[in-house]
Amino acid sequence: MSSSTAVAESPRATGPRRETSTSDKLIDVVSRYGTIASLVACIAIFSLMKPDVFATSQNFFNILNQVSILGIIALGLTVALVQGLFDLSLAGMATLGGFLACKWLSEGTIGSPVLAVVVVMALALVIGAFNGVVVAYGGVSAFIVTLAVGSILTGVVLGVSDSQTILSGIPDGFLVMGQGEIGPVPAPVVFLAVVAVVLYVFLEQTQLGRHMYAIGGNAETARLSGIPVRRYALLALGISAACAALGGMIVAANLGVGRPQGVGDTYLLDSFAAAFIGASTLRPGRFHILGTVIGVLLIGVINNGLSIMGVETFWQYAVRGIILLLAVFAASFLVMRRR
Amino acid sequence: MTTPNEPGREAASRPGPLLRVRDAVKDYPGTRALDHMDFSLDAGEVHALLGENGAGKSTLIKALAGAIQLTSGTVEIDGAQVDVRNPQRAQALGVSVVHQHGNLVPELSVTENVLMVEGLGRRAGVLVDWRRAHGRTRELLDRVGLPDLDPHRDVKSLGPHEQAMVAVAKALASNARVIILDEPTTSLQPGEVDTLFAQMRRLAQEGIGFVFVTHRLNEVFKVCDRITVMRDGGLVGTWQAADLDHDRLVDQLVGAEKAIAHEAFTATAPPREVVLEVRGLRGDVLRGVDLQARAGEVVGVASLPGEGAGEVVESLYGIRRSQGEVLVEGTPRRVRNPQQAVAAGMALVPRDRLAQGLVSELSVRENATLASTRSYRTDPVLRLMRRGRERSEVAEVMAQLSLKSGGLESEVRTLSGGNQQKVVIGRWLLRRAKVYLLDSPTAAVDVHTKAEIYGLARSLADNGAAVVFTSTELEEFVRVCDRVLVLHDGEVVGELAGDEITVNSIMRLSFGRKSV
């Protein structure tokens, strides 16, 4: 066996085992920073083509304002997705939130706008937690539960409103949520920033966030480590619902009317798109707040830029779809390469 | 010892080997997984392919199955060079791999699984001809020694042994002549292993060549004609099984550092105070088990699968329903779920690291503190994590365990099996667990890593913890346990200590024979 042994010992000489090649590093960089690069590229292209309209500070805040509602809803959804829970009830939840706040305020049920916002968000938290109870203790998939609950919520709003939009009696104190400004910054952008910071700290810096990532990664390991896994579904879907309701209220405040239908549906698919684009960014395969923010901005910049350039709406949809595919493809490509 | 790959012997009886791999090289970025490997398989032989983790066995198998392409080297079948460029091609060439879990779809019927590759026959080109399909399946089941198995049954309703044989039948359905069995015995009971081997021998007589990959060396001598050992991606040697024995085979596997594979890790000091006391543990399997574990000792719990050993561990950790008294350091504790068990000071090192022990996408640090996040949070309301303290304590424990990783922030899945196991153990050190439940902690790790894990078990005990150990490999009890409780049918039928602990004595007791 002398000759074969001599050969067998040679691989150790070729170098350390886990050394990564340049091509691996390139793929890694592309998948981590690809989304950010395409965001920068989009901004650069639009700025070059329409420097006088796109690249202005007014348009900058305009974009932020346009994406803020989507952003708030998508950030809440991110918390649910961290645990692997799809929340499809957020469309119905957003509609319900906006409508209820307007109804209660215009009818005088609740006098203070601040209190109304708090009560609606608390109600959303409870409904979301109910989703969580059915998921965690009933063993039903979140996809189905939230689809059903979303449908129920849509029905409830239509029934309560008798399909009538609330047009008057909404106090200015509420409208300021959607129309006010702090210096040059529109109020919805302030809400977006607050939600982003709070949820970032929650997911990245707290014990609860840590446990959520563990459960999303491997629920059995989390359970065997002594984490009470089930109750986290209540928290995740509760946060997702509360953010959706907040988003819906800002829509209502922005438009100045309480619409009983169609408010949330606009945001449902885009919020999933933003979260999935985010999951392919910086930390591939992991949903996270910063990623979702980047995903939201990318969608916002593309919509805004294409509108400014006079591109038809149907093209905007198509381009958004292509970008989502590319982002998810990049992330899964990396995951496949690692196996 | 004979000369490896002696060409004369093979040439004597037939024109050439059924399968031959020459000078196979497979390079991955930064590493060479196969290094000028040679291997040959005759028709009608059972050939063991052995090596430690990372020796290159799986790379070779993947190349033969068409899952990866060799960087250089040739594969010959019946003396003709072939290009195994994809799995379909491998199947067409008659090479079939049966993986540990049998690559079957549990929700489908036996027939649907067996004929998955061949395809189900059609009537008029549209409707499946089920009668013919089941008939064909029965023929194949007959060939693997399961003539009475109903082909309509779902695969998930079969026992592990039947699943293994159905997987072989599936290979036969695609006219396989080379069947590669990758750790097929992991989930089998001793009797079932013998049945599998008998069928392998019979099929070998029909001219099929088996490549048998396993970590259980005893099995090699039961069923194999020849043994090939790999190390560091290359060939160490090929021997007739009759020319080797267990110890000499281990020496070939581990190479230079031979001593480590035989080292024992039993206690050097007498045990101290009682840490874990269990009285009258009952459940669907257990029928009143008493157990005591002291600081400084490793207590083994052994039984045939499903007869109590695994059930004791699961009951103590609250995964399995049970009644009975459990005292940790003299305090009665309720352990109805893992949360309560962890609170009581229990620690589980589970059988399946990736499925139960780790969150593979999270970092070493996050995995290590998973059970002790509470001790790093600022307060019970905001619950912010004190990262600095977390990092320094993890670093300290991992240094103690001499963890080899790309840093505490690297994802835990990039670590080797042994280092992953250290992260799991580190988690419980950080939690300051008092009772360690080790459930087959060395499953599917190589000889070196096994020794390291035994050493860790010993040092846990030396540092004052109670260690309860169970395993499917009886040799392990001999090397690491100071005392072994043997269970049969849910009851303790004997207790062995010191030199009384042998594979034979454990085996005899676990079959219910009270006298040793």
Automatic annotation (TrEMBL), chain B:
Alphabetical list of InterPro entries matching this protein: AAA+_ATPase, ABC_carbohydrate_import_ATPase, ABC_transporter-like_ATP-bd, ABC_transporter-like_CS, P-loop_NTPase
SUPFAM superfamilies noted in UniProt: P-loop containing nucleoside triphosphate hydrolases (SSF52540)
PROSITE patterns xref list: ABC_TRANSPORTER_1 (PS00211), ABC_TRANSPORTER_2 (PS50893)
Alphabetized UniProt keyword annotations: ATP-binding, Nucleotide-binding, Repeat, Transport
Pfam family for this entry, one: ABC_tran
Molecular-function annotations in GO: ATP binding
Domain ABC transporter: 19-257, 269-514
Name by which UniProt lists this protein: Sugar ABC transporter ATP-binding protein
Protein source organism: Nocardioides oceani
